[in-house]
Amino acid sequence: MDRTNWTEIEFILQGLSEYPRVEKLLFVMCLMMYLVILLGNSTLIILTLLDSRLHTPMYFFLGNLSFLDIWYTSSFIPSMLIHFLSQKKTISFARCVIQMSASYTMGSTECVLLAVMAYDRYVAICNPLRYSIIMSKALCIQMAALSWGLGFLNSLTETVLAIRLPFCGKNVINHFACEILAFVKLACTDISLNEITIMLGNVIFLFSPLLLICISYIFILSTVLRINSVEGRKKAFSICSAHLTVVTLFYGTILFMYMKPKSKDSAFNKLIALFYGVVTPMLNPIIYSLRNTEVHGAMRKLMTKHSYWRKG
Description:
76% of the residues lie in helices and 3% in strands. It starts with 9 loop residues before the first strand and ends with a helix. The protein is globular. Helix 8 runs antiparallel to helix 9 (230-259). The protein has helices at 20-50, 57-74, 77-85, 93-126, 131-134, 137-163, 180-184, 192-225, 230-259, 266-290, 293-311, and strands at residues 10-13, 90-92, 172-173. The longest helix is centred in the middle third of the chain and has 34 residues, at 93-126. It is built from 11 helices and 3 strands, in the order E-H-H-H-E-H-H-H-E-H-H-H-H-H. By secondary structure, it is mostly helical.
């Protein structure tokens, strides 16, 4: 097929078409989780903007993470929900490319952003007296911009290489959404260059940030173990616990997907991918606010103001 006839190309998102009852159950579950994602992450963003006590580097990066999770899930969940209830599960070439590019940008950005947040925790624990000097407003903005810029650049590179490929035959994507590797495998030409760049992108954006996170926590652990008081150690661990939980959940799911033995059960593989794409963004705001007294205080303050204006 000619590469320029993009408007004529459609892809079929297979999902779990062979299990219609499961798809209806997944519709209800994913809809509920998507609403929790929107509510939880939007609430965190609003709180970090309105409460001056949350105008710190940690909450600045957390606001970026919440914004990212909203856009990441919004790039594929609404269309996925429609396909769950629809007999026709097709998506145009343009929509597929936009969906794939957006989700890839957000995924790459999140990897870098988690490493940036680990550095922030490292400075907070290992250099507390110089924390406000090192983590200045300008540096925080630069680090956040770098995370978004690198994520966009990685996605742009992969997307440009992918849309240059010619497609022919029945374009069936065995997934819930357009995914870069499944997309390029449908091309009727050699895709070695695409596979190499995807592999390099995974190494750079998955394992390089993970290495930096591990190094940060080695230094953090070394510092914490030198603290004499039990209360001091507890406080230090509480500062890092939420971020460490999110990193474990994020990378644990990814590593499980990549390192588990290849299964012939494609439905199981797709459900694991769905867990990574939906459950993790849903849990992030819950993890960061569950035992966070500052977030609880900001929420109470906001509710008090809201009730005051309603009475007024």
